[in-house]
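question for whoever is on the cluster today: can someone run the full assembly for these? four chains, 402 residues total. i dont have access anymore since they changed the login thing
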Amino acid sequence: MIEDKSTEQRIIEAAKQVFIEKGYDGARMQEIADLAGINKAMLHYYFRSKDKLFFTIFDDIFSRFMPAVQKGFTSNMSVEEKIKFFINSYITLLQSNPYIPLFILHELSRNPEELKTHIHDKVTSNFKIFQEQMQLEINQGLIKPIDFRQIVTNIIALCVFPFVARPLLQEVFSSDNESFDKFIEARKTIVPDLILNWIKM
Amino acid sequence: MIEDKSTEQRIIEAAKQVFIEKGYDGARMQEIADLAGINKAMLHYYFRSKDKLFFTIFDDIFSRFMPAVQKGFTSNMSVEEKIKFFINSYITLLQSNPYIPLFILHELSRNPEELKTHIHDKVTSNFKIFQEQMQLEINQGLIKPIDFRQIVTNIIALCVFPFVARPLLQEVFSSDNESFDKFIEARKTIVPDLILNWIKM
DNA sequence: AAAAATATTAACTATTTGGTTAAATCATAT
DNA sequence: ATATGATTTAACCAAATAGTTAATATTTTT
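^ ran it for u. tokens below:
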């Protein structure tokens, strides 16, 4: 049970845990209340409905997670340095938050229309700068002329996928948790290798 | 509503549709019955419980989907040819079944212990042959000595991720369905490029 | 200290949901 | 034709679940 902190904060933390683990449909208000150590009526006192609580939690998770991902892109490094830096910090972030991507992807696919409005303003801006910088280096002949979207997608895919597919991969490769963690750690050098080898002239 | 075919087959098809779209927790027996055009009691007459129906559907989906993925690996092509062939047919398969991967990944993460037993025998075998062949080509100095698991993971990641992250990617890249389909189509050459460029000596 | 506002609880409600039952219908074999 | 077994239906049930209410306790304001 979550102790100390304000009731509202305890509800939010409990709700995050339960929603991330079970998803919206699998989450139970009673379980959230129990985890927060309060009465179920308190959830409605503070958040009115399961829907309202969920959107609060989703927005909170999403707006904490996406900027953390994108912020590396505003520094004054070269494209190559940025990619290396990004992949390393992104995988590190995922190591501490392994269940967030699948949660976001699943909820987004369950209810795309409604959730799109929740994410719209949080995703577009940060990539622009990086896109322009890449175009510059392409013009200079430093990197190959590849569709920007494909590069971003590949980087994210290679970072995120092992976390969303962990149970399947562990089963396929018969690996225990320890060796899987090593497998992930190794990707901090493998993924930049793969990407840079591909885009560099 | 699904017509013709035996009742059992109609239930299975309806259940597939609903479970894939909504997930186990979001699926309703009534919705499956309606879609199959039958009484709700029939679901229980044929499958006893939601759990039993779900496992039937899951096993069916999983055992149709995984072998289709792996079978390309038993031919007598070179590693390079196999990779090209695999990526192409895998992405094509995903274009016709775009929602299956997220369904499998979500259910596997919701209930890993129980579902692991359902998939165990269906995943391990087919990769072995490919792994040995790769080791051979590594020894011959044709391809770089890279952890086999990393190669497989990267290939699958690059194929699957755009499908599981589609709503997010479309939002980030502001792309309509048509341009997203083109984006996917382009990956049939981009992904082999990326992988082969990386592993070839 | 009294009043007012805020927070908390226990008990309750309405609805949804997976599952059951018993009767009716249909198909098949004798 | 008729008895037998399989299939289908409508009505029902019990448990679970989101949400409510009204009374009580606590904190804050005056």
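summary bc i know u wont read the tokens: The mean pLDDT of chain B is 92. Residues 162 and 169 of chain B are 7 Å apart (CA to CA).
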